[in-house]
Amino acid sequence: MAQNNSMEEFEALLNESFEIDTPSEGSVVKGRVIAVEAGQAIIDVGYKMEGRVDLKEFANPGEAPEIGVGDEVEVYLRNVENARGEAVISREMARREEAWDRLEKAYADEERVEGAIFGRVKGGFTVDLGGAVAFLPGSQVDVRPVRDAGPLMGLKQPFQILKMDRRRGNIVVSRRAILEESRAEQRAEVIGNLHEGQAVDGVVKNITEYGAFVDLGGVDGLLHVTDMAWRRVNHPSEILSIGETVKVQVIKINKETHRISLGMKQLQDDPWDTVTVKYPLDSVHTGRVTNITDYGAFVELEPGVEGLVHVSEMSWTKKNVHPGKIVSTSQEVEVMVLEIDEAKRRVSLGLKQTMRNPWEVFAETHPEGTEVEGEVKNITEFGLFVGLEGDIDGMVHLSDLTWEGRGEDVIGDYRKGDVVKAKVLEVDTDKERISLSIKALDGDPFAEAVGGVKRGSVITVNVTKIEDGGIEVEYEGMKSFIRRSDLSRDRSEQRPERFQPGDKVDVRVTNIDPKTRRLGLSIKAREIAEEKEAVQQYGSSDSGASLGDILGAALKGGDDE
Fold first, then answer.
1. So what's the architecture of 450-540 in CATH?
2. Is it true that domain 274-348 has CATH number 2.40.50.140?
3. pTM of the model
4. How far from 332 is each of 121, 233, 282, 335, 350, CA to CA, in Å?
5. Which of residues 144 and 423 earns the better pLDDT score?
6. Mean pLDDT throughout 451-461?
């Protein structure tokens, strides 16, 4: 009986020792390295069980394995025995289990974890967190897009766990969160040491169309393009390059958003302080065209001082032309200062004022009566426009086209491009108008015909036509009309039919009208004038002589002569 009890106790102790020494599959056990051969470590995990583990499982990404005989390590027991009678163990799986325990605790406590980026996958990178592999999205690598992640590969650095699922084996980490946290702390410290108006050195980090971001030692400030220089800057890259160290002034600090506005031109003298002295009104200067718009062109007088040449001040003659057809960008031009507004920092310039008024020049070189020649530029209902010297036009009115007939009837004989000659009638420099005459080239036949005729003169005319209201007569080729009432002093003789075409008649000139080109003629006026003259010479009021006697004497005296 006692023997049976001792056997049962021995069996119980043996089973207990099996339970203590024999590890269960799927657990992490401790073992000792007993040999290293053929790229593997042979590990004794107890209870006369040995297993093999590839040496690479003992190495961190990018590092050589550090393992030697006698080292104690933890491994994951997958199977107690395989076909060769060896235990199937894994160091990598043991590290993973250990890492998951550690990472879950860090995730719960919102603590940082250390890891190393060791691979690139779609959408991001893989990170070794000391046994567990995590996914690092591309957007979580840095605060700004990273073009080359090479320098970050294999480098041990802190990460923040964003999400993890042990059952699915998913871990998502962020490097950006760590950087933003440290940047926030650094920003607060740097901003605390800055004040508005302070001049500091910074490094250009990034350039955009509207400005550049400058690193002030952990915090970025915006240097707007308008604050880079007093002159016009079309793009920041004209004066800045990435990586360049620049001296800037702190213009404004927003304590809430931690935004910093910077300026470079504020450290330079303002050219506007001396504008009125350097550029007095009506002075002429050479400048460079920097920008062209629909309403004019901007001309730089010096860096930081620009003036506008309005389209109306660009040319004496080109009134409705786009400024881009008169000047071009970067062209050097001479301009006159017309007005300065210091409050609005504006300078009004004139381009045409540096050149003489072409109408004044024309008036000096082409006085009235000068003969000119030009091309017909335009034909309107009231006349012709003729191109003249100095790129200006003169106008020939309908009334100045011909002496005979109407201008409306002869203007159709002209075409654009015809070269015509004309005489200058008038130049109005204020209204920029030049009046020309084509008919004046031939002289005025009316003026020539009546050149020696004065009002009151008696001339001999030829009767050319008989009408009910009077007779048409001709003098030196000029037609005139004598009304019925002017045909005789006596009413009974005021009959047109008593005259015949071809008759010569003496008439008195009563009017000379150059505008209508007509002579006022009267037989009646001649008779009355002759009567008065006879009375003065041959009779008096008290002689008692009759009118017939006086006229007879006058006529006789005329015959005697």
1. Beta Barrel (2.40)
2. yes
3. 0.46
4. 58, 18, 19, 10, 14
5. 423
6. 83
